[in-house]
Every structure is written in C-alpha cells, then in structure tokens.
C-alpha cells in the first residue's frame, strides 16, 4: 500500500463520488492528500474520517471553487505551504446536465455553467499545478496532472452536447499539455469513465434512495458491453491511481477509457441477429 508513498496530491471535486474514492485510495497508498471542493460539510467529514479521529496531518480539506482562479491559486499555494511540494494534481471536479437531449433544448446558461466548472476548472488546475511542478523538475522532481474526462470523448451520443464539448476540450487540453510539460518531466493524462453511479447522477442532483441507485445500475448493466459487473467509482479511482503513480512513469498524453469496451463495440448487428 505504498504506490504514492511520500507524494502530495490534490483531488478537486474530492468530497464525493469519483473524487472521494480517489482521495481514499490515494491516501491508503501513502499520499498526503488535499481534498478540494465546495461541499464543505462532506469534504471535512471525509478528511476527519480518514484521520480516524487522530491528529494525522496527511489529509486536509480546502474549500475551492474550481471556476475561480483565485480559489485555485490559493489551493495550490496552501498545499505547497503545508506539504512542501505538489506531485499529483487530479482535476476531477465536474458537473453534468443529465441525459443527452436535443441541441434545440440546450441553453446558453447550461453551456456557460458547464464550461466554467468542467473546462475552465481543468485549465486553471493544470495552470497552477504546472506553476509549482515545473520548478520541481529543476530539483529532480516532476509531477503528474490528471483529468477526469468521459467515454463520450470516444463515442457520440453518450452525453449532452454541452457536456461532450467540455469533455472533448479537456482531452485536447491534456494532449497539448503533455507536449509542453513533458520537457519538464510532468506527465499529463485523462481517465474517461462511462456510466458510473455517483451522487452526481441525475443532472447534478444526488441519487437519494436505494431504489434510484438500483434503477440507474440496472440501466448501465443493460446497455454496457462487459456483462456481469457495473462500473463503480472505485474502478475509476484505481485507473486514476495507476496514472498518478510511478507505475505509469512513461505514460503521458493518454486518454484511458474505463468503459468495459463499450466505445469499441457497436452492438446493433448482434442485437438484430439476436446473437449473444
């Protein structure tokens, strides 16, 4: 349990869902972790739980609205001030507007909000991480910048138009950054899950009841390609852990799909022929 031993990581959107799973796994693997979110009660409760009621200084919660540059800059500066460095910046914070719909029903307000959190948040996180990671290389360091994108970057129709635009933008940003930051020893990658049941399912609302969770899981199980299991937040967190760790030390510019092969398969012919 030491794949991130002595590393310092920030996880944005770390109070719940994929982010919380990544926070817990990164911490288990030896990292000092900063949870960044606007969900203060959830974020602080997660930090307190992982401390085990003790005085463990290896887990911290910091309020951060990723769409605001001052917040992101303060987040990174506070992390370096507390722990002395930043090795992993996981830009995970994001919002969704629910199931795909017609572009005729999409609004400029929805688009602006999604760009502000998903894309601008990723841009600002990477910018300020790079600001402190580049000097680390001069001292023999480096770093890893990681984004949560989406399987909708590999196949059309999985997300709304607004959502898909922001996630494609993140993948483009990651590839450009991999080119620039590679010379400084900084790796940049994306992890792109397909449908996963989180507290953000349902247009940004929480899945509150077991019945609602079961309904969403049943839907994903039916449409998924890899039968017998559903994608979980822990699956995504494990993929993120690999990309963040030194096991992926020569992996950069990758969009790692965690979708059970869904984006590689068109089941229409098989379904039509009723071949299982």
Apparent shape: globular
Q: pLDDT below 50 for ≥5 consecutive residues: which ranges?
A: 200-207
Q: Please report the number of helical segments.
A: 8
**What fraction strand?**
5-15%
Structural Rg = 18 Å
Question: Total number of β-strand segments?
Answer: 7
Helix fraction by DSSP (H/I, runs of at least 4) = 40-55%
Oligomer: single chain
InterPro entries: NAD(P)-bd_dom_sf (IPR036291), Sc_DH/Rdtase_CS (IPR020904), SDR_fam (IPR002347)
GO molecular function, one term: oxidoreductase activity
Pfam families: adh_short_C2
Keywords: Oxidoreductase
What can you tell me about this protein's structure?
This protein is of the alpha/beta class and 276 residues long. It contains eight helices and seven strands, in the order βαβαβαβαβαβααβα. It has a seven-stranded parallel β-sheet, with helices on both faces. α1 packs across α7, α3 packs parallel to α4 and α4 runs parallel beside α5. The longest helix is centred in the middle third of the chain and has 31 residues.
